[in-house]
Design a protein that fits this description.
The complex is a heterodimer of chains A (about 750) and B (about 55). By secondary structure, chain A is of the alpha+beta class. Chain A is built from 26 helices and 28 strands. Chain A has a 7-stranded mixed beta sheet with strand order 16-28-27-26-17-24-25, with helices on both faces. In chain A, strands 1, 2, 3, 4, 5 and 15 form a 6-stranded antiparallel beta sheet that branches. A 6-stranded antiparallel beta sheet of chain A has the order 7-6-8-14-9-12, with no helix packed on it. With about 55 residues, chain B is mainly alpha-helical. The longest helix of chain B has 24 residues. Classes of the chains: A alpha+beta (about 750), B mainly alpha (about 55).
Amino acid sequence: MQPLSVPLCEYCRVAVARAADPYCCDGCRTLAGISGPSRTKSTPSLDLLEERRLTEHFGRTQGEVVSFECHVDALACEACLQGLARLENHVPGLGDLRWDRNRSVLSFSFPREQEQPGHLGRILESMSLNPRWLRAGEQPVQNRTAVLRLGLTGAFAANIMLFAVPIYTGVTGTLQTVFEWLQLLVFLPVVFWSAIPIYRTAWVSLRMRHLSVDLPLALAFILGSIFSFASLAQGGHDLYFDSLSGFLFLILWSRSLLEKSLSKALATPDLGQFFEKPLFDVRRNDTPERLPWDRIAVGDELILNAGDRLPADAMLLSPSAEVETAWMTGERTPRLRLHGALMQAGTRLLSNEARMRVVKIAEESDFAKLLKSIHVAGDKLGADLEGRLASGLVLINFAVIAGLFILAAPLGIDELLRRAIALLIVACPCAVSFAAPLARARANKIAFQKGFWVRDPRVWDRLLSVNRIAFDKTGTLTGGLMRLSSDSPLIDAHWKRVILSLENVSRHPIAESLRRLWGPHELFEVADAQEIPGVGVDGRIMGVQYQIRGGTDEGGRIRLDLLRENVRVVEIRLQDDHQARVSEALDTLKRGRELYLLSGDRSARVQAFAKVHGFTSENAYGDLDPARKAEVLRQIAPDVYVGDGTNDLPAMKAAPVAVAVKAAALEAQAAADLVMFNGELIRLEEIFALAKATRTLNRRNLIFALIYNVLAGIAAVSGWIHPLAAALLMPVSSLLLLASTTWGTTALRKLEGRS
Amino acid sequence: MSIIFLLAPMALILSGLFMLAFFWATKSGQWDDLDLTPRKILEDQPSEKDPYESTN
């Protein structure tokens, strides 16, 4: 029987949906247009079932999105990254394509039920990127081949040098010939094995039509090798085995040095760094012990001192404790917790010694989830100036060589080749492509000290000129502690106790405010205590059903009713207490900028708030639902949007730079470019200054790299430097750059010092 | 001078042996974790009873 013929995509060989279409998607059409049909025809196509299996094994489902990670090792240059970034516009559903340079991991996501990891994997394979899929939580294996390559190339280069030096010092005759052939023998593994990464990146960049920095290097290597082989075969003595192997070793070494410093700068802090204390006082089975945070188990009794961060989710055993939960709520104001209250890992104790019972270990807490979400972030892929500049320099190098061959033809082919090889080696713009990531990594580190997590390093470019800032009102500028309104009725001590007992399950600003207002009380035992988000709190005390219900009254104040068996027994009126530092922050941020206020709150209240805080009345928008908020945001087109992420996710996604002032919602972190974890709005000003200082550092680095390239290029073209000297000079630019970034600019050092 | 014809291959063989040793060391993961390895000597031996795990 004739097997059923299924039309396959011309590019990736996946079955296509429409027989008339030679490609399965626009991504393949684009790639085929770039590089011609793929040569991976022998591999079987992936069907839907295989896609599903890949998703089951390697997908991480988060809401409506499934994300994937794969380890790739050929993305050495920025130009290749830019080429890859184009895929996001063409592969249907593919989103959030990120490159984690630190781990050499490419991550991306698809909407649920539309996952095509295999499809993308096939495209990556056809680009010679060899993706290796990673399961959730799996770390890529240390790249031992890179270490081996570096070490062995060093040994080969040293051995070649051993036979080259006698020739430079005058050995002639048979011995010279023997030494030359021995050099060739040791050079063979260098040309056929050590240089593979350079060939591969050059090949990938050619296929993606990008001029990568490895292209001239590969060309110099191949040209030099062929020229030396030919010279040796004809009995000549123009050999470059020593220069080429030395240069390859130095380039591998300088790159590993830059990668290592970048990894160090990009490393995100782990849980241990947050908990600060090496050992905690714990009572386990009534035996006192001192344990590190990762040894604390459920059921242990923890004894914390003032200033300690809670290393696990725990229940308060002491009668009361004052804490700060800025990492979660963005609020640094002290909060009162009463006996039995649940506290999350990361909470900082402000009052004196407190005892608590561990209910969930740190690794499983929301705090750990938050840190993990930042660990997987990586760099969003996109075109950048440095990548283009590096490509431009490569093009200039090629143009100069072409010019040299035309204008200086009388010098003879040997001399021309020697100069061309020296130029290709010495003027390699490797440092240029490392300059920006290094500067950005440094900025990320300083931002972290200031209380910001940078989720997308591209914000540094977008924060250079901030003229318009839009704020969400509720939860961002308000939502702090409240005070009793002057017309609120007096409340009996018994009802205070009832309300505090019921509110003990809640972390809502209203509950926090009441605890703060009324202070520690002995609490009732509450059965079936339950917080209903947006509605109130329910519970039974001594068999009686109580409810707390909230709402706003006609004066814009918050009204709280305590219901006993559905009958109102107490009424409280609260007023939002706008903190002085919000006003101070707004005053600072207002200088030279236009501020906007967007809120879902009633227009009258928004206008009143705007008046107090210096927003012009036409810049304050009220009665906005989340979708309308995003729409207004698009009309205003601010440079930065600051929100709390609970009800303004569409707005955050619509803004060029979204700042989440609270880190509690994981969805908000996903949409935010910057996550604030210390709640100090005024520090945004420092972040804007940091963006400018980073640009200065980046420019200085680029200027250094350019000056080096031009000077070295002129020297090579004029024939002043031999390819061997070029090989030795080449890492100078990388070291110069590293030193410049480590030293930083005056503004950067100042910003670092003020943290 | 002809001694060089003996010394050169010997040098090559010797460096080849070192390269083999390096190859073995890399493949067996000797350089995988250069930062944390020195601290390991300060930690408890895994063969001993773990004092933290034992009480629970």
